[in-house]
Write a structure and sequence with these properties.
Elements (H helix, E strand, L loop, with lengths): L19 H15 L9 H4 L7 E6 L4 E4 L5 E3 L5 H12 L1 H7 L12 H6 L10 H8 L7 H16 L4 E2 L1 H9 L3 H13 L5 H12 L1 E4 H12 L4 H17 L5 H7 L4 E3 L4 E6 L3 E6 L10 H14 L6
Antiparallel strand pairs: 1-2, 1-8, 3-5, 4-5, 6-7, 7-8
Helix pairs in contact: 1-14, 3-4, 3-12, 6-9, 6-10, 7-10, 9-10, 12-13
Length: about 325
């Protein structure tokens, strides 16, 4: 376990009011809540993870850090990578190109719904659901899935000063059980003309979801959205944060916005990231998921921290 005292946070930051003793109480409550969840089972390697694993890190834009749990443990980002695919493409290609391919409205149906895609004429409702992320993967520069994933990986590590890597064992596990639903989504978008090469788009999507890192890498990505020093990235991050707030937790997005009020994104690995604009980022890793596919313990912990410190963007 690694910890740094919360008094290292800037006294002008809301995070300066964080009390380590109170945080540890919330973590214990979150661990209890996680016992109610179930780990993802459709990817064999995810089904074998330690369901008791728990790590959290709070990182301020000034560089101050509070970590509870193992910072050495790595995990795949899975859907937490989706906002950063969007950020990369907004910076590289611009809004017009991106939103010709994908919409920006919340989905009425689950994150992997083919019915939703068909209802919308083959254009994904937003970048945070599977169809939207697959469509975005069709836009990443590169001749094949490997080069596209590498281009994204190199850009993220450079911009966030992170050490993300491709978890090849996880990718093999993902590919060992082909996801027919995602394949159906890709081919539906190909029929509508939304994407040109569904096989490369789908293979790219599988690879980028298997980008992995530790809890520190995840908060570094969050800082990139919270307060990037580069004007171009800062401008694009505004759009990304808005879509995280409205779509990042799928059907739970609206209720989370009301209760917590922070842009957030979850993944089936149990990773979850919340961005505190102008302040910092909070990341949590806890594999058991609730019925909507979000980290059960992670959601509770974020809610406790945000409500107590009044971190909501609507406060």
């Amino acid at each position: 376990m690694e910890q740094q005292q919360a008094n290292l946070f800037d006294r002008h930051s809301k995070l300066s009011y964080l009390q380590p003793a109170q945080l540890e109480v919330w973590i214990k409550e979150a661990i209890v809540r996680s016992n109610e969840g179930e780990v993802a089972s459709y990817v064999p390697l995810l089904a074998k993870v330690d369901r008791a694993a728990f790590a959290v890190q709070i990182r301020a834009i000034g560089g101050q850090i509070y970590t509870w749990g193992s910072e050495a443990q790595t995990f795949p980002l899975m859907s937490v990578v989706k906002p950063f695919v969007l950020l990369f493409l907004l910076c590289e290609l611009g809004e017009q190109t991106v939103f010709e391919c994908v919409g920006c409205e919340p989905s009425e149906l689950p994150f992997n719904s083919l019915i939703q895609l068909q209802k919308d004429g083959g254009k994904p409702r937003n970048p945070m659901i599977n169809s939207g992320a697959i469509a975005l993967c069709s836009l990443i520069p590169g001749q094949d899935a490997e080069s596209r994933c590498q281009n994204l990986l190199a850009w993220l590590n450079k911009q966030a000063n992170s050490q993300l890597f491709l978890d090849k064992l996880m990718l093999d596990s993902v590919n060992s059980v082909p996801n027919q639903n995602n394949r159906n989504l890709a081919w539906e978008m190909a029929r509508s003309g939304c994407i040109k090469n569904p096989e490369i788009a789908l293979a790219t999507y599988n690879r980028v979801c298997c980008l992995a890192g530790n809890i520190g890498d995840l908060t570094k990505l969050g800082i990139l959205l919270a307060n990037s020093p580069q004007p171009a990235i800062s401008e694009c991050s505004r759009t990304v944060k808005a879509l995280m707030a409205t779509c990042g937790l799928y059907e739970a997005s609206a209720s989370f916005a009301l209760r917590v009020g922070l842009p957030a994104k979850s993944g089936v690995s149990g990773a979850i990231l919340a961005v505190i604009p102008g302040e910092g980022a909070i990341a949590c890793y806890s594999p058991p998921l609730d019925k909507q596919g979000n980290s059960a313990g992670g959601l509770l912990l974020l809610e406790q921290i945000a409500k107590t410190l009044k971190l909501s963007v609507f406060d």
